[in-house]
Amino acid sequence: MLLGIPGLLAPAGLVAAPTALLLGGLSLLHAAPAAAQAQLPERFRLTSLTLSVGGSPVTLTPSFTPATNLFYRATVDYDATSISVTASWSGSKAVLASSKDWRDLTAPFLSEEAFASSGSSVSLNLKAGGVTGINLSVDTTTTYNITIHRRPSTDATLSGLTASTSTSASGTFTALTLDTFAAGTTAYTATVANERTHVKLTPTVNDSNATVKVGKGTSLTAVTSGSASGAISLQVGANAITVKVTAQDGSTTKTYTVTVTREGPPTVSFQLNTILLVESEEDEPEEVVVELSKALSESATVEVRVRTGGTATENVGLQAVHQDAHLRCGGDGDNDRGNCGGGHEGRER
């Protein structure tokens, strides 16, 4: 039983006039009915033929004309795995349906089913991700041929998304915990310490025919599904990273966003009425900057000592002068700037 060959098993009296059709880059042949073309005798033919997938009808092209045409084509959705074929005929006939990889005539049948009676249906398996050829043999004398194509996939979703961070672009990347992944959730967040300067994302597409790009803003770079992206630098604060998936059809897209917040440098915090010791490798540090963990009451005093050269200590006399906890070195007014010991200017925080 052969597929896609005009005139195959056509009985005497039926003239197969093949013409070439180009569909999706494939050259298909079908018998073109003509006014002068002889009709297939009733004893060799079907009377009706319909297709459906999941209960939805599938259109035959051209329309079914059993007396004059043996060759047809149809298109199904990308994810269709089987197709229902319903055939009718008059008289007593044995009708056998089969499906096969259209590109490999030597491969085993995907399905082979005999119709129980006229008007009955059979279910045939379809070639996954490829073109399927279907044959309907009537009494092993006449064969109707149907070529089943698939529409391109419109699946632009991810099935997984993970992240990792490092202290440099070329350093060792360790796992970063994101929000729990779900294909329908497009926004994710994570926070990293200040020393973490780079992140990589690893997206996995749900459909192997989809493509994915990762990057910041409009600067997106293609990434192999299931593999890590290149290192993406992180600024202090929020960093929005885009993951864009494009389906096989080339037009359906879905965008995921991962916002990674990099914390600022660590700050020094301390309790009131305690001594803060600031280490300095310089004999005379240029400035001393202190940030408080909470506001101090007016006139609350914090003693700060600077250790210079690793030995001596010096009280630089920092004092909180109002409730928003700005610290100044010496001075009498809120806007004064005094000296932090050794004649060095302090800085308001």
From TrEMBL:
Chain intervals for the UniProt region annotation (Disordered): 328-349
Coiled coil (UniProt feature): none
Gene3D superfamilies referenced in this protein's UniProt entry, alphabetically: Immunoglobulins (2.60.40.10)
Pfam (any one): Cadherin-like
InterPro entries assigned: Cadherin-like_domain (IPR025883), Ig-like_fold (IPR013783)
Compositional bias segments (type: Basic and acidic residues): 328-337
Domain Cadherin-like beta-sandwich-like: 47-151, 175-263
Name under which the protein is recorded: Cadherin-like beta-sandwich-like domain-containing protein
Organism: Candidatus Synechococcus spongiarum LMB bulk15N
